[in-house]
Amino acid sequence: MQAKTEPALRLATSDRSAREERARPRLTDDHVERNPGTALDLDIVRALRVNRSAVERRAATIPTRRTVKKEWQAAWLLRAITLIDLTTLAGDDTPGNVRRLCAKAAHPLRQDLVDALGVADLRLTTGAVCVYHSLVATAVEALRGTGIPVAAVSTGFPAGLSPLEERVREIRASVAAGAQEIDIVITRGHVLTGNWQALYDEVRMFREACGDAHMKAILATGELATLGNVARASMVAMMAGADFIKTSTGKEGINATLPFSLVMVRMIREYHEATGYAVGYKPAGGIRSAKNALEYLYLMKDELGNRWLKPDLFRFGASALLTDIERQLEHFVTGRYSAAHRHPMV
Hints:
Shape: globular
Oligomer: single chain
Distance between the termini: 45 Å
Helix content: 40-55%
CATH architecture: Alpha-Beta Barrel
């Protein structure tokens, strides 16, 4: 932690000139070249520093520096719907409630709201549906023809402490069942002990097991002790080939927060500047209100730009969030807030 006034985050880039000489991947409005990863550079990882007070000051300004109202707010909330990984990760999940969740993902807004807002031509859907491995096949069948991908939590979710071979087999089984995205969890002990090589090797192995399925690396930020560890774990996961980095499983005591998110998106920016590869971001856990979702959208726009406001580079891991977004959109249409039961998830 730095006592002096300096940038909140700093990436050592002694070999940046060599990187810049390579052909740069193209990032366009409709194309993201997949991050292949790089060799593990421990000099970069160990040189990362986080000024905690600066991060907290910057995070505190995010909800206040930018606001959107009326039709602009409605438009931002419609965008937020398309960024949701609609999730059910409960012990009492059944094929029936997963099918209902998939139906909600395909038609996230009540038809009267769609008509009143005049957005039928947008054909809104959520970004994905996220379930346990045992329900991947059910979700794939329920979403057939919608174009909505299924994301499976894997690798011994949420603790990630099952034998490594079992975690790799679980990834392969989920991919074989039709999952197009895999949310893996890292071994937090590697971060807490500074064993960056072991973390890199683990995530690299998971990435290889994913094959063509995109991999989101869950860092469990609330269990990593320091913001510096969050920064280093983010960088190592991207070096190992993560397509997204994700805050939390939703099962920790502390999940997504703006300070954690600021550190992670700054690492994404540093990695993109150094390699040319764009990595996505997924805050998850505790994001339940439309207001909170807007704060994350402000963060992404300010720190990474408009390109990171599309589902191929940004997702919310959430379940209750969609209900509150619907309530806010109904208020925009009618001037009245409705009860949550008018917008059932399942």
